[in-house]
Amino acid sequence: MPAFPQGVHGGTVVPLDRANVDTDAIFPKQYGRSTARSGYGAVLFDHWRYLDPGDLDSDHARRRVNPDFVLNEPALRGATVLLAGANFGCGSSREHAVWALRDHGFRAVVAPSFGDIFRQNCALNGVAPIVLAPSEVRTLFGLAKAQVLTVTIDVHAGELRAGPHAFAFQLTPRQRLLLTQDVDWIAATLAHRERIAAFEARRLAGQPWLDRMFPH
């Protein structure tokens, strides 16, 4: 199931007011011993979320949660939009970080900037990486801290709405395709097969010797 099957998603916001949140903070390395894409939601932000350390054998439902960490606020249970500071998802390129966000239920992360590889991994795994201006992010933090904030995200229109406020953002055509249809990276590339075929025809016309050197 794509994250935005109708192109629009409405959800409650978790305001994580921290900058430079790296992928080890999002998903600690001791849990990354599998390539399964599910089952990681319970260890999202593990070091901040729990008061006691965890490992692969932990029963996370029995661990002591940190009541001061925003993700544990009862009013935000079931939230699907994460609001964060600049450079979110920096550090190592582990894809598990995005898997943990999606498994927990997040469908979008809103921040002034992202780690490059993390941002690429987001749309590929059903999480919209939404970049807004720092001033716009601060406005959203103010709204989220005053009350439980619900936003509506339209990936086709490139607009995030929070009450009377509307903020424009940009996604690439490939990101929109990955978020709104049940396709993987290869299928998203093949959606441009006509452009690929046209490029191959131009290449063959301009450089016919390549086909003699590298025959099909």
Automatic annotation (TrEMBL):
Pfam families: Aconitase_C (PF00694). Keywords: Amino-acid biosynthesis, Branched-chain amino acid biosynthesis, Leucine biosynthesis, Lyase. GO terms for molecular function: 3-isopropylmalate dehydratase activity. The keyword Amino-acid biosynthesis applies. Pathway: Amino-acid biosynthesis; L-leucine biosynthesis; L-leucine from 3-methyl-2-oxobutanoate: step 2/4. It catalyses: (2R,3S)-3-isopropylmalate = (2S)-2-isopropylmalate. Residues 11-133 form the Aconitase A/isopropylmalate dehydratase small subunit swivel domain. SUPFAM superfamilies: LeuD/IlvD-like (SSF52016). Belongs to the LeuD family. LeuD type 1 subfamily. HAMAP family: LeuD_type1. NCBIfam families: leuD, PRK01641.1. PANTHER family: 3-ISOPROPYLMALATE DEHYDRATASE SMALL SUBUNIT, 3-ISOPROPYLMALATE DEHYDRATASE SMALL SUBUNIT 2-RELATED-RELATED. Heterodimer of LeuC and LeuD. Catalyzes the isomerization between 2-isopropylmalate and 3-isopropylmalate, via the formation of 2-isopropylmaleate. This is 3-isopropylmalate dehydratase small subunit.
